[in-house]
Specification:
Elements: E1 3-10, H1 12-16, H2 20-30, E2 33-40, H3 44-50, H4 60-67, E3 72-80, H5 82-90, H6 103-107, E4 116-118, H7 122-132, H8 146-149
Antiparallel strand pairs: 1-3, 1-4, 2-3
Bound molecules: inosine-5'-diphosphate and magnesium ion (MG).
Residues 54, 59, 63, 93, 111-112, 114, 117, 120 line the site of inosine-5'-diphosphate (IDP).
């Protein structure tokens, strides 16, 4: 499992409830590196494309309406195994079932509003990063703490 980038969306409920800072802090403290960030209002078209796999599901219309109802904060996070690391930090889909210690488990109890989206595979991450970020909007920067977040003595960060 090498260095990966993943797409995270702090959904309208996270923004409206003032939880952006707390959620970003969790990712920063874990050691994930922010390589992109965008505060935006998602259009109907973008929501439909992003959630196209769910278009036949009963909750689809409500999901699109929720995601477009208020601004979101979109993040691109980088780290070794970042996709799985972020998914495990997010917790199960519904706050009522998500384990304590996870973002959804600690901050939500709803079975509809669930604070955060994270890419669920490398294919999804590539597709979603391309949907939400244009060329040049992901920044490749050197983090001063990198050598203490990872063991950099070998060929790959460990
Ligand atoms: P995930 O976000 O944990 O990957 P998915 O099953 O991929 O969950 O569903 C995508 C999103 O659709 C969820 O994050 C949630 O916002 C919404 N969703 C899923 N199932 C339901 C439901 O039963 N009712 C309302 N919204 C749902
Ligand atoms: Mg999913």
């Amino acid at each position: 499992m090498g260095m990966e980038q993943t797409l995270i969306i702090l959904k309208p409920d996270a923004v409206q409830r003032g939880l952006m800072g707390k959620i970003i802090t969790r990712f920063e403290e874990k050691g994930l590196k922010v390589v992109g960030a965008k505060f935006m209002q998602i259009s109907q078209e973008l929501a439909a494309t992003h959630y196209s796999d769910h278009r036949e599901r009963p909750f689809y219309a409500g999901l699109v309406s929720f995601m477009t109802s208020s601004p979101v904060l979109v993040l691109a996070l980088e780290g070794v195994g970042a996709i799985a690391v972020c998914r495990s930090m997010m917790g199960a889909t519904f706050g009522s079932q998500a384990a304590s210690g996870t973002i959804r488990g600690d901050y939500g109890v709803s079975n509809s509003f669930n604070l955060i989206h994270g890419s669920d595979s490398s294919e999804a991450a590539i597709k979603e990063l391309g949907l939400f970020f244009n060329d040049g909007e992901l920044i490749n920067w050197n983090r001063a703490s990198e050598g203490w977040v990872y063991d950099l003595s070998g060929d790959e960060p460990e």
